[in-house]
Structure prediction request, 124 residues.
Amino acid sequence: MLNKLSDSIYYLSNQNEKERPTLGLVCGDKYSLVIDAGNSVQHARDFLNEIEKVNVPPVKFLVITHAHWDHFLGMNEYNATIIVNSLTDQLLNKWRSYSFDDRSLQEYVDAKKDGFTVCGDYQE
Prediction:
């Protein structure tokens, strides 16, 4: 369920047990902007389903705040212009060379490769 902060700002709460971060929605007059894409296709779809339940302008933009897997793996589910900074873009390009089978992902986590921590598991 979406939480409403104001007439134009909503968020989907984090779910630590599923390693799902908080996702945001900012609504303008004509379009809406999503903040972070979610940790999976299913997470993104769940968020989009919740967005459909409220009367807001269509999602046109998606901002990825940083290149941790739990913030961007759902980004292909959005029919939106994706906005990232240059460092995040470099890291996302690095992700394209990775394999995403369970064994490989576990190896990346064990090796603490860039972006393979869960955001709540580290101190900034």
Q: What stands out?
A: The mean pLDDT is 89.
